[in-house]
Amino acid sequence: MRSPAHSQSTHSQLIDAPCGKLEVDALWQADSTGAANPNAASVERVAILCHPNPLQEGTMMNKVVTTMYRFARDQNMHVVRFNFRGVGQSTGEYGNVTGEIEDALTVLQWIHSQTEARKLWIGGFSFGGFVAAKLAQLVNEQSAFLGVDDFDITDLALIAPSIEKNDTSDLLLPTAQTFMIYGANDEVIAPSSLQQFGENFGIQTHIIDDTGHFFHGKLGELKQLLEALSSK
């Protein structure tokens, strides 16, 4: 159930990053006094969301990212979305994927410093889906070195991830925590490629009929699937 509007605070700001500055939009849920608080005792989960390709006008305000944002908000998670380098108020230039993975890690480290919530929900759409997958791999493989070793990934939501233009040969996923959703008529990433990716990695895969890459007319159904598939 969605919390009352007065019990949440959306805080957009610029944070320090290797690229200069990253624009971050953080929503903190409320504590027992009704005030927004990143350390609210009742909130154990925090979501980080990755947006589509910056070279194709992808931003954190993308409708699919916003659907994930609303889902996480309504599930009483803290929610953080951000613009990759060179997008919106974030400084720098496109980083050829590796730079954007660095951006996601930078934001995650910032989240770690802002809240005591340690159950981590990672989500990404299209290009952001691949970045989200690589972020999860970093958390699982190098968390102590990166200073985020007490995060527990509860969910990795890959929404029509960009797996044709990006190398997945060395990708390692937290299989039990990962699920993928895509449209049956995806016109950007071949549904057959997405199906094969899901089979190769042994992850839950769900297809939404009668829609394409951007889930036009199906965002409500997408949100319902997120609710059904995510850990409680």
What does this structure look like?
By secondary structure, the chain is of the alpha/beta class. The protein has a single domain (5-229), classed as Alpha/Beta hydrolase fold, catalytic domain (Rossmann fold). 31% of the residues lie in helices and 24% in strands. The protein is built from 5 helices and 8 strands, in the order βββαβαβαββαβα. The protein has helices at 63-74, 98-114, 127-146, 191-201, 219-229, and strands at residues 9-17, 20-28, 45-50, 78-82, 119-125, 152-159, 178-183, 204-208. An 8-stranded mixed beta sheet has the order 1-2-4-3-5-6-7-8, with helices on both faces. The chain is globular. The two termini are 13 Å apart. Mean pLDDT is 95; it is low at 1-6.
What would the average pLDDT be, to the nearest integer?
Answer: 95
In the CATH hierarchy, what is the class?
Answer: Alpha Beta
Which regions are unreliable across 5 or more consecutive residues at pLDDT < 50?
A: 1-6
**Topology order in helix (H) and strand (E) letters:** EEEHEHEHEEHEH
* Spatial extent as radius of gyration: 16 Å
For the biggest β-sheet, the strand order reads 1-2-4-3-5-6-7-8
Structural class: alpha/beta
Strand fraction: 15-25%
Number of DSSP-assigned strands: 8
The CATH superfamily appears as Alpha/Beta hydrolase fold, catalytic domain
**Which architecture per CATH?**
3-Layer(aba) Sandwich
The CATH topology is what?
Rossmann fold
N- to C-terminal separation?
Answer: 13 Å
GO molecular function, one term: hydrolase activity
Keywords: Hydrolase
Pfam family, one: Abhydrolase_1
InterPro entries: AB_hydrolase_1, AB_hydrolase_fold
